[in-house]
# Entry
Amino acid sequence: MIIERGILKIFSDNLDVNSDTGIIKTIIEALSHVLSHGKSNQPGAPNAFQAQCEVTGIVDKLEQLQLHPSRTVYEVTIALIETYFDVHDPI
# Structure
């Protein structure tokens, strides 16, 4: 599985405010797919990959990306946060 091969660390390493907008959008889309596969069918059960996103620093980087100058990056970031994490827009 790609999670075991370190894909979340790769995402984290490349998810930076200074990264190209296209790269950021691609990483967020891929991250959304990963997280969608981590959802449990049991109500209230945690997502299998959320904790790993916190450990690898992805959640912190998503919080920083809410301040990205690109409106598109802001929108895809907020959508991911609101869907999978209990983190809210600071604005």
Notes: The chain has a mean pLDDT of 87. The helical segments are 7-14, 21-37, 50-55, 58-65, 71-84. The chain is about 60% helix and 0% strand. The two ends are 37 Å apart (CA to CA).
